[in-house]
Design brief:
The chain is α+β, with helices and mostly antiparallel strands. The protein has helices at residues 10-13, 18-27, 38-43, 50-60, 118-127, 140-146, 167-175, 198-204, 262-270, 273-277, 280-296, 302-311; strands at 68-77, 85-87, 95-104, 109-114, 157-160, 179-183, 209-213, 220-225, 229-234, 243-249, 254-260, 367-372, 377-382. 18% of the residues are buried.
């Protein structure tokens, strides 16, 4: 990014070329491998960059701990050759290195763990000092959540998806004084838990729900019918208090008010922290827009503005000029089109194109209305 036109940093780009930077990165080492023996190098496959990982993680641990946190998988895009690469469907970058992330609801990374395999993950859980019966039988999802228990204070509420949610995990977190809420797979619902079927809830209408509490009150399971059954398990939330949300109805072609259980409302609002972190391209667009605003406020930025538009002019449809340049020339003055030319709607904000009732001769039926604002002048064309 330091060498791109939009985000160029002169101090770096003028000092070395991009290819030289790539050579340095390929040869850069942050750890002396001679300090580790063969067994230590084998046990930690990220030992070459472990000091860098620990440095970043230590700063994440300094952030304030909120009451609601979420745990989810994240994939770091990587196309190199390593057996640590994972494939996770329905992710923005499905191929790459997998890490488990503890995040706040607004997208702050509070802690993370690189996934090297189930055995390594279980060892990290054991190192946290948790006294768990049969900790070696934990599943990957269960171990990933328990890995972060020591990163938060007692009483924190965890949110996670169905990859992590199991009855055993809810029991463990309850015994540790932690809240837990997550979607659950249908085959993991205990058989003695008698919930209404999807057909029964469908007959009751969209937004209907049902719940069942385990005998020892360790957790409850709630089923909510939206377009289909959604099953959630929680050791602290259930149906009440009920709120409402809007859902689109295809048949009536309008939004309807639908009842929503409390557990669904909290899950939707607290679970998306890791997804916000994954919106890297969206953050880049925000950065570009902020940079463009700074360029527009600079009186000596004509060359930079032209470079920005030259960089994106290779697209099939040329984008609209920036607001500061739209009225600086005659590039948007009305032109008389030849007879029977195709009509297209003007893409500039506030403009409309209407076919003249007297025929297609635009030169004879052209009416121009000029409306002045405090910033610029718009030409509204009625044809």
């Amino acid at each position: 990014m330091y060498w791109q036109k939009k985000t160029r940093i002169s101090v770096i780009a003028d000092a070395m070329s991009r290819d030289m930077f790539s050579v340095i990165i390929a040869s850069l080492k942050v750890f002396d491998e001679s300090l580790l023996n063969a067994a230590q190098r084998k046990s930690d496959r990220f030992h070459k960059i472990r000091p860098l990982i620990d440095c970043v993680r230590s700063r994440c641990l300094e952030l304030d701990r909120p009451q609601y946190v979420s745990v989810d998988e994240m994939i770091i895009p990587f196309t190199g050759r390593t057996h640590l690469k994972q494939f996770t469907p329905r992710k923005p970058n499905p191929h790459g290195l997998k890490i488990f992330v503890l995040a706040s609801s607004d997208g702050q990374v509070l802690d993370f763990e690189f996934f090297q395999g189930k055995e390594d993950l279980l060892l990290n859980v054991q190192r946290t000092g948790l006294h768990l019966p049969e900790w070696g039988t934990l599943k990957i999802g269960e171990a990933a959540v328990l890995r972060f228990v020591k990163s938060v204070s007692r009483g924190t509420s965890f949110f996670f998806d169905r990859f992590f949610t199991t009855p055993k995990l809810l029991e463990i977190l309850s015994s540790l004084g932690m809240g837990a809420t997550g979607t659950m797979k249908k085959n993991l619902v205990p058989k003695q838990c008698r919930l209404k079927t999807e057909n029964q809830l469908k007959r009751s209408g969209r937004g209907s729900s049902d719940c069942a509490v385990r005998d020892d009150s360790a957790f409850c399971i709630t089923v909510w019918f939206d377009k289909k059954n959604i099953i959630l398990a929680s050791n602290e939330h259930s149906i009440q208090p009920v709120s409402t949300c809007q859902r689109w109805c295809k048949r009536e072609k309008r939004h309807l008010e639908v009842e929503r259980p409390r557990v669904v409302e909290l899950y939707n609002s607290k679970m998306g922290g890791v997804d916000i972190i994954d919106q890297y391209d969206f953050k880049l667009e925000i950065a570009y827009s902020l940079i463009s605003e700074e360029v527009l406020n600079d009186d000596n930025s004509e060359s930079e503005i032209s470079e920005e538009h030259d960089d994106i002019s290779r697209k099939r449809t040329r984008p609209l000029p920036i607001a500061a340049k739209r009225t600086n020339s005659a590039c948007h003055m009305p032109d008389a089109l030849p007879p029977y030319a195709s009509r297209t709607r003007c893409r500039y904000p506030g403009y409309t194109a209407v076919k003249s009732p007297d025929g297609p001769n635009l030169g004879q039926n052209l009416k121009v209305n000029i409306s002045r604002t405090t910033h610029d002048t718009h030409l509204k064309i009625c044809m």
